[in-house]
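Section 5.1 Outputs to date
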Amino acid sequence: MYDYDVIFIGAGHASWHAAMILLQAGKKMAFVERDVVGGTCTNYGCNAKILLDTPFNYLDGLKRYQGIGISELPKPDWTSLMNYKKKVISPLNKIMEGMFENAHMPVIHGNGKLVDAHTVEVDGRKITAENIVIGTGEHAMKQNIPGKEYIHDSRDFLDLDSFPARIAFIGGGIIAMEFASIAVQMGAQTTVIEYTDRVLRMYPEKYVGRVVDKMKAAGASFLLNHEVKEIAKKGSSYVLTFADGSTLETDYVLEATGRAANTENLGLEDLGISYSRRGIQVDDHMRTSVPNIYASGDCVDKRIPKLTPTATFESNYIATQILGINPNPIQYPVIPNLVFTLPRISQVGITLEQAEAQPDVYDIEVAEFGKRLLFEAKNQPDAEFTFIFNKKRELVGGAFYGEDAGTNADIAALIINQKLTGMQLNQMIFTFPTESQALLNLLTPLMLKKV
């Protein structure tokens, strides 16, 4: 007889969604958490980011109307905004823990380590379960260079009480570019340092170039093909030395060069469960090499985007496996992804790079949304949709640039996943005048186009 039906190691999105499904089926469960309930996204990631980002998104929109209805722009007050962020976000983990406790799903605080296929040890206490789900997420990586102790990560940035006058971002990926977009709006001297020859390599170069040009025009600097070799403290500031001998002085250094799965001190090697820095290896049923031990979310070694909705999808799937109601292997739909730069860039399905490399398989159509429908594009003339079709004229991918790029990608994902045809879209009516309606208006004729 086990203590629980399921033990979740980690209490973030990769775990608690499954728990809510299993709860309705009468299962007895517990969480083991060595940090805070809710995980990175709830406490130190997505939620805090969108709360802090939203005023800057509005400010960016107001700038487009400056001189045509808006004369004076408001100035952001970071201290007040951060106080609001702490008021809204800081209580969430306690609220969630209370909900779990009230549902008789206790949270056991401490490091959970696998002892055998059914036993987890938490700081000397052993608990057992029929099934175990590992959802431990990832952590930010830090370069092993002299002065690494002066480097901050995204968690630090999202808790900054006062904004630095000068800030340097090491890395040109999603986190760095999102935060740099905020820093530029704050009026900080902003520098993005990237080891390779371009930033945001996972997104279409033409749209990334527009964001970079806009940030440069606002005062940001981009140091491409630059490698940081050392960081030294100089009074109240810091000096970064690059491989070529050049230097940069700044007040705050944030590194966002990647994340690694949280696999340490879990006892994986003792049970023969394979893992690497990329994560834990699972089969197509999200099982590790120990059949009753599953892994979910960012701690999994996978090629699909490591996103909160992906973790939620996997968590929901694992619940159906434990309940024995779904014999099928996991099948991922197309996954929209969005970078919260100003403006946004999103994509879904077949990428523009893939389509350009296979012109015999895919057709690319560009809809100049902002130029054609400026009023719906919220006065953003370079807002644009790029649609990717197969030779049957079915939508198989898309890339979007503009304030509502995330909504565009979501609608495209729905069309792709449901395999909707041009004729079916032609029978739909959306609200007007919205960007959703504009997408439908521009996409439908292209899907009905004879080629």
